[in-house]
Specification:
3-methyladenine DNA Glycosylase II, Chain A, domain 3, 8 strands, about 10% strand, 2 domains, 12 helices, two-stranded antiparallel sheet, Alpha-Beta Plaits, single chain
């Protein structure tokens, strides 16, 4: 081989080695200069969390919440819903924060579309997404406030706690951890988080006038306000044309409060709530109907 070519080749290798060494040293110095020290407390809090990455805490993943709860004194230690009280107590201990009470809650669908025999105003053809269908004149249902039924909430649930039965979401109370993912996902806002201690609930989210409700649904709330007027505890109110219940007031008053509201409702849409049993009966009823 030509000695000159050998020299050129060796020179090229040496030059590349020098360039690599130069950039390697530069990267090492940059990494050292801009290195972010990890707070061991954040790591400890992160390890204590459930690790579900569900976003129910309102932060981008478990690490986001760990950073926030350690650094921000206003962030409570009980936002890891999958971890429940055990994790909340541990986070409170690690961060030196006061342990806040965790209420056992579950997702509840405030819609009686199946029971009310709500018809379709048109057939939807498009992406199998509730959000997409909602963009088309509010969805196919004759009730503009009804569950669309394409299962976007079931797909979004990180715990597989929602299944679709006859195009209607059924919540498995034993799997639901009240992370609120389905609440944020539903474009109709018919899913809420309900306390398992609650005595009553209204499975309807309509804000339409009573005469319009009667045209499309056999059981929908007609905003007659009788429940608001008759509730002895003053726990029922109409807020933005939607019935809301102050469960704390209802519980404080006693079980007789429950009986009055349920009996006085002319549409029988004001119901007794018995936590997990209500959800299981609802699931069984839909399966039988199908």
């Amino acid at each position: 081989m030509d000695p000159e070519l050998v020299k050129l080749a060796l020179g090229g290798v040496a030059l590349l080695a020098c360039i690599g060494l130069f950039f390697g040293i530069g990267l090492a110095l940059a990494a050292h200069k801009f290195a972010v020290e990890t707070d061991p407390l954040i790591e400890e809090v992160l390890e204590s969390l459930a690790g579900a990455q569900c976003g129910g805490c309102g932060y981008p993943g478990c690490e986001g919440y760990a950073i926030a709860v350690v650094n921000d004194p206003d962030v409570p230690p009980n936002l890891c819903y999958p971890g429940k009280e055990k994790v909340a107590a541990r986070v409170a201990e690690l961060t030196g924060k006061k342990m806040a009470e965790m209420e056992d809650m579950v997702a509840l669908v405030r819609c009686a579309r199946q029971e009310g025999r709500v018809s379709h105003k048109h057939e939807y053809i498009g992406f199998a997404s509730c959000t997409a269908a909602n963009l088309g004149f509010g969805g196919p249902s004759a009730c503009n406030y009804a569950c669309i039924g394409l299962g976007e909430c079931a797909q979004a649930c990180p715990f597989d706690a929602i299944t679709m039965v006859e195009n209607f979401p059924v919540v498995n109370a034993d799997k639901c951890v009240s992370c609120g993912t389905c609440v944020k996902t539903c474009p109709k806002q018919v899913i809420v988080l309900q306390s398992l201690k609650a005595r009553v609930y209204v499975p309807c989210s309509t804000k339409e006038l009573g005469k319009n409700v009667k045209k499309v649904c056999a059981v929908g709330c007609i905003s007659c306000q009788i429940c608001v007027k008759k509730c002895p505890a003053g726990a029922v109110r109409s807020e933005n044309d939607l019935i809301q219940i102050d469960q704390a007031k209802c519980l404080e008053y006693g079980p007789e409060c429950q009986e009055v509201c349920v009996e006085k409702c002319p549409r029988h849409i004001f119901r007794k709530y018995e936590g997990r049993q209500v959800l299981k009966r609802a699931a069984a009823g839909l399966k039988m109907a199908s």
